[in-house]
Design goal:
The structure holds two protein chains of two kinds.
Chain A (H helix, E strand, L loop, with lengths): L6 E5 L3 H7 L10 H14 L9 E6 L5 H14 L8 H25 L4 H21 L1
Antiparallel strand pairs in A: 1-2
Chain B lengths: L1 E10 L2 E7 L8 E6 L5 H13 L7 H4 L6 H6 L5 E11 L5 E11 L8 E13 L2 E6 L6 H6 L11 E3 H4 L2 H4 L2 H11 L2 H25 L3 H43 L5 H41 L1 H16 L9 H10 L1 E2 L4 E2 L2 H12 L4 H21 L2 H33 L4 H52 L4 H43 L6 E6 L5 E5 L11 H19 L5 E4 L9 H12 L5 E5 L6 H10 L2 E7 L6 E5 L1
Helix pairs in contact in B: 8-9, 8-17, 9-16, 10-15, 11-14, 12-13, 17-18, 18-19, 19-20
The chains are: A mainly alpha, B alpha/beta.
């Protein structure tokens, strides 16, 4: 079992985007790892994943809690066989690639939209997903 | 008595001018027209100066200047004396003349200095059995006493009026001062003088009694002190009444000024309160928006990764089904069981086979890390899936709360806008000041009302003490039979004083009623809108009120023209009751009136002039075609005041 690395990477060019996002109301007071995970799930939801060109350590893995790891591993497990769970490096890479694609989509969506419009759209999107999930359950 | 002639020599604009008002056959109505600055108001001032030695209508600027005509002053030589002289000739009903003359002597100083006043003298030429005789101020009675028989100084404002103030007459004239004037004109002051004289006589009798009757001094002294206190309390009560009347008057003025204007302080307080509520609501809304953002963020992570979570849980379930992972297990417990070779669930030691089985459970089903990972991730993923159920309700709750705040804020915005709209266009500082002044006046009024109540009580107690002491004094005198005559005299004086007091009260009440009735009769006789008002009331303190058809006070809504008619009605009532049938001179009677009431007011003056001399002073603008159309045919004489080209002299010309 490979040793867990101490950082999760983002593309160096996206560092500014991450920081800018933190100035948006929905991302205010959020840590690096929170924004990273949001970028990751955003990329995953749109099935967009891209390799990182220039790596920049952005999230300390020691800061990730069980819930964070559960999400990272769920994304990895959804893509790969169960063995991936024993390979933390692979889990990290898969998640970094989704986050790499997700941050670009997310940033583009927020910065290009009018103030407050992202939250409204986001709420609609979540409601649709929720309705589908609830529908699936029932 | 009417004014027959006014002569002015070197008085302000008037170098040498005589204006005659010869007794006419019918209407005693006179019109004098002059541009601003030609001397209309100074004509009234000249009458005032001649009769009373002052100029009631002079401006602050002209008060400091000498009366001497400037042209006369400049033409004079240094050191020479020049005199200003105003002569008012009054004509009695029997056609006899009473001439009032006041002269001021000036001496011209060097350079451009103002003329120096050297002295003023006043004389009256009255009819006598030998034709006439001159009375000066040093005579007994002095010349000024004869002025009091023409127009008493105390009530001159009711004879020499200015239109610019007519509409404010009842506001500027305190009820208390009218009361005092009525006191004078109704000649009740004579009763008061008699009362004072008798009181003095009684004091002398008491002194005498004190000397003659042993032991009575204490009673007499106590009585004198009580009476002194009683008078003092009376003065204080009058002062309170004056303060109350003054406050009432100003409160009334303020109320009139504030009619229709908003209560700025109340509205501003309300506005500030709303703004505070707005801040709280905004804070609440922002907190809820933040909460909503956090919910979106948290649920966003779960919902956007929901497919992955679902697939992972399905995969885990499948692995468990395939026995690739142990059923739900506690890895720490397994490790402990393996280490201690003892099963803590069944309480038995493990044999070799069981130990190997436990080892397989820990290591062999999945690669060690994967199993551990599943072990840790599965409960979290199930928790997250469970959490999804509350998404709808949480979002609805926070959205509803935000809407609640926004509705409240919209309501507050609406209220603030309403207040702003009410406040716009008003001088807030002025209205705030007036409200503040009114509150302060109401406090003053309340304070004086309470004080008056206490003083009245003290006065009653003193009256009772006086009665007891007088009785005591009387008994002491009766015991001392030798001084029966003195006692009888004192009794007589006391009885006389009581009679005088009662008479005075009866007369005052009677006069007030007469003035009220006469004012009412005159007002409804002169007014052109008779049905608009129902009554005129005059209270004990001579506060006049006009009541509308509903019986409510109408001073707040009365027009300036109507106020002028009410003033004239009241003035004529005073003339009637006082018995002083002197002329009425009005400077700019139409100054504050516009539109159709102008003609009506002029017609009112014309009607009054059938029984009383009326002299009206107009500007050419006031004497417009509609007015001249009436007056040109009804006046006994019309004069125009014309200023010389060098603006130093005014002359009067008939037209």
């Amino acid at each position: 079992m490979a040793k867990l690395r101490d950082r999760l990477f983002i593309d160096k060019d996206d560092k500014a985007s991450y920081e800018h996002l933190k100035e948006e109301s929905m991302f205010a007071d959020k840590d690096n790892k929170d924004v990273f995970i949001m970028a990751m799930v955003y990329g995953y939801s749109r099935k967009e994943s891209t390799a990182i060109d220039r790596k920049h350590g952005y999230v300390r893995t020691s800061y990730l809690n069980d819930e964070d790891w559960a999400l990272l591993r769920a994304i990895a497990l959804a893509e790969e066989s169960a063995e991936v769970l024993a390979d933390s490096e692979k889990v990290c890479q898969l998640c970094e690639q989704y986050a790499n694609a997700g941050i670009k989509l997310l940033y583009g969506k927020i910065i290009k939209g009018s103030f407050g419009s992202f939250e409204k759209e986001f709420e609609k999107e979540l409601s649709k997903i929720h309705a589908r999930v609830v529908g699936d359950k029932s | 008595m009417r004014i027959q002639q006014i002569s002015l020599k070197n008085y302000r604009q008037f170098r040498d001018q005589t204006i005659s008002f010869d007794r006419p056959a019918k209407k005693d109505l006179w019109a004098i027209v002059g541009l601003m600055g030609t001397g209309k108001t100074n004509l009234l001032n000249a009458i005032g100066w001649c009769l009373y030695g002052d100029e009631p209508l002079s401006s602050e600027k002209s008060k400091g200047l000498p009366l001497l005509n400037l042209a006369a002053h400049e033409e004079g030589e240094v050191g020479h004396r020049q005199s200003v002289e105003v002569e008012v000739v009054g004509e009695t009903d029997t056609g006899e003349n009473v001439t009032f003359v006041r002269r001021a002597s000036y001496r011209k100083g060097k350079g451009k200095s103002l003329p120096l006043l050297e002295g003023v003298d006043f004389e009256v030429e009255i009819p006598s059995s030998k034709g006439s005789r001159l009375v000066s101020e040093s005579d007994d009675p002095p010349a000024s006493a004869f002025v009091e028989r023409f127009v008493p100084k105390a009530i001159r404002d009711h004879f020499f009026l200015t239109g610019e103030r007519l509409d404010r007459y009842f506001r500027d004239t305190l009820g208390q001062s009218i009361k005092h004037e009525v006191f004078v004109i109704s000649q009740i002051d004579l009763l008061e003088k008699v009362h004072g004289r008798i009181d003095k006589i009684i004091s002398e009798f008491r002194r005498e009694a004190g000397q003659k009757i042993p032991g009575i001094e204490n009673t007499t002294e106590a009585l004198a002190n009580c009476k002194k206190d009683f008078q003092e309390k009376d003065k204080q009560i009058e002062n309170c009444k004056g303060q109350i009347a003054k406050a009432d008057l100003r409160i009334k003025q303020i109320q009139e000024e504030l009619t229709g204007s908003p209560d700025i302080e109340k509205l501003e307080n309300k506005r500030n309160e709303l703004l505070q509520r707005q801040n709280i609501k905004e804070q609440g809304r922002n907190d809820k928006l933040k909460e909503k953002g956090e919910l979106l963020f948290d649920y966003g992570k779960i919902l956007l990764s929901q497919k992955a979570t679902q697939r992972s849980l399905q995969a885990i379930d499948q692995m468990r089904k395939d026995r690739k992972i142990p059923p739900t297990h506690d890895s720490d417990l397994l490790k402990r069981v393996r280490r201690e070779k003892f099963c803590h669930l069944c309480g038995r030691p493990l044999d070799e086979k069981s130990t190997q089985r436990v080892k397989n459970l820990i290591d062999d089903v999945l690669p060690g890390g994967a199993s551990k990972a599943i072990d840790r991730m599965e409960p979290r993923l199930r928790q997250l899936t469970e959490k999804l159920n509350s998404f709808g309700s949480s979002m609805k709750r926070v959205t509803r709360e935000i809407k609640g705040y926004e509705d409240d804020l919209a309501e507050i915005d609406k209220e603030v806008a309403g207040i702003d709209s009410k406040l716009s266009g008003y001088n807030r500082d002025k209205i705030r000041r007036l409200h503040g002044e009114r509150i302060s006046l109401e406090d003053t009024r309340q304070h004086n009302t309470r004080l008056q109540g206490r003083l009245e009580l003290n006065k009653e107690q003193l009256a009772s003490q006086i009665k007891t002491l007088e009785e005591q004094e009387r008994k002491q005198m009766i015991r001392e039979g030798r001084h029966r005559k003195l006692r009888e005299r004192m009794d007589f004086c006391n009885t006389a004083m009581n009679v005088l007091k009662e008479t005075r009260e009866d007369i005052m009440s009677d006069i007030r009623k007469k003035i009220a009735d006469e004012t009412k009769r005159r007002f409804f006789g002169l007014h052109w809108k008779k049905s608009s008002y129902s009554n005129i009331t005059i209270d004990e303190d001579y506060r006049v009120d006009l009541l509308d058809r509903s019986g409510l006070p109408a001073f707040g809504t009365i027009s300036q023209g109507e106020m002028e008619i009410l003033t004239l009605a009241f003035t004529l009532a005073l003339h009637e009751v006082s018995g002083f049938d002197s002329p009425i001179i009005v400077d700019r009677p139409l100054a504050m009136v516009s539109g159709p009431p102008r003609r009506k007011i002029v017609n009112v003056f014309s009607k009054i002039s059938e029984k009383k001399q009326i002299i009206l002073l107009f500007t050419p603008d006031d004497y417009s075609s509609d007015i001249s159309e009436i007056l040109n045919s009804q006046t006994s004489g019309r004069l125009r005041l014309v200023m010389s080209p060098d603006e130093r002299e005014t002359t009067a010309e008939g037209f």
